[in-house]
Design brief:
Length: about 300
């Protein structure tokens, strides 16, 4: 006869083990009980080894979803104690196995909780990457974000991640832009990454005037750098090439400033940047109209930053 034993643990998780009486069983089938005892003593590697032996050598225990769920909790406890990142893969692997074996859907609530908990460890790691201003983890952050979403969807397939995506994309774009400005020669390629993530952000939320403005400024500031670096004693061909490059950058920035102004028509900073693009492009009429608009809509800002003409 088999008796199901429920053991309450400190963190309110329920473990289930199987005891066998009255019949002769494969000795490995008894290891599930031993694994629970090892867990309760805090010997997580032993608990894992015992449960592994049971499910690998006893078909009945292998088919029991509870054993796989318990094994996922052993790995989770071991991960918390050891901080070994590789253990998260095992947590996911055995939790998925528990889900597969749970044909009667008895563990749905527990499994969803496990997937969310695991996903949040990836999110915590992502937050660490995003908060690191050195830029060391920039290339890894988006992968960590995608891993977090993929695991969380195992608990909630319908979850909408758009707000989180927008936030992550904007932070990454800002980090790449900041890194570039710290060393423009060394990190020149980072501007493309900045534009890429800002563009992904506004594709999800087209109401972000500050993001349109940020993209516009990336192009506009490059044009200003060209102007500041001009050597007016250089030959005509070099000057013409510089003029063409700054005009091209101003043209790239222009639609973003215009879009930002559509979203926030009274934003003085956007109007000022738009006027700067018009000035570089020699669009004199639009330039003067922008200055008048700035003076009308934000006179304080106009008086503080007006440097043209």
């Amino acid at each position: 006869m088999k008796v199901r034993i429920y053991i309450s643990l400190l963190f309110a998780t329920i473990f289930v083990s199987m005891s066998y009486y009255g019949q002769s069983y494969n000795r490995y089938c008894l290891y599930t009980d031993y694994s629970v005892r090892a867990y309760e003593k805090g010997d997580y590697p032993k608990a894992i080894a015992l449960m592994d032996s049971a499910i690998n050598n006893c078909k009945e225990e292998n088919d029991n979803a509870i054993n796989w769920y318990n094994l996922s909790l052993y790995y989770k406890a071991y991960y918390k104690k050891s901080k070994e990142i590789s253990l998260r893969e095992k947590i996911l692997e055995v939790t998925l196995k528990a889900q597969e074996k749970d044909v009667n859907k008895e563990l749905v609530k527990q499994l969803k909780s496990s997937f969310r908990s695991l996903a949040n460890t990836y999110k915590n790691e992502l937050n660490y990457y995003l908060n690191d201003t050195s830029g060391v983890y920039l290339g890894k952050a988006i992968n960590k974000h995608n891993e977090y979403k993929a695991i969380y969807k195992l608990a909630d397939p319908e979850k909408d991640f758009r707000e989180e995506d927008v936030l992550v994309y904007n932070i990454l774009a800002n980090r790449y832009d900041t890194k570039y400005n710290n060393n423009k020669n060394k990190y020149a390629a980072y501007l493309d990454s900045s534009v890429y993530y800002y563009s992904k952000s506004i594709a999800l939320d087209s109401t972000q005037a500050d993001i349109y403005n940020a993209i516009g400024l990336i192009y506009f500031n490059q044009a200003v750098d060209i102007i500041n670096a001009l050597d007016y004693e250089a030959d005509l061909e070099m000057l013409m090439e510089s003029d063409a490059r700054k005009a091209d950058l101003a043209m790239k920035g222009l639609p973003y400033f215009e879009k930002a102004l559509e979203t926030e028509p009274n934003n003085g900073k956007v109007i000022y940047a738009l006027a700067g693009c018009y000035k570089i492009l020699n669009f004199d009429e639009k330039y003067r109209a922008s200055l008048e608009m700035l003076k009308e809509k934000d006179p304080e800002y106009y008086n503080s930053v007006y440097t043209f003409d």
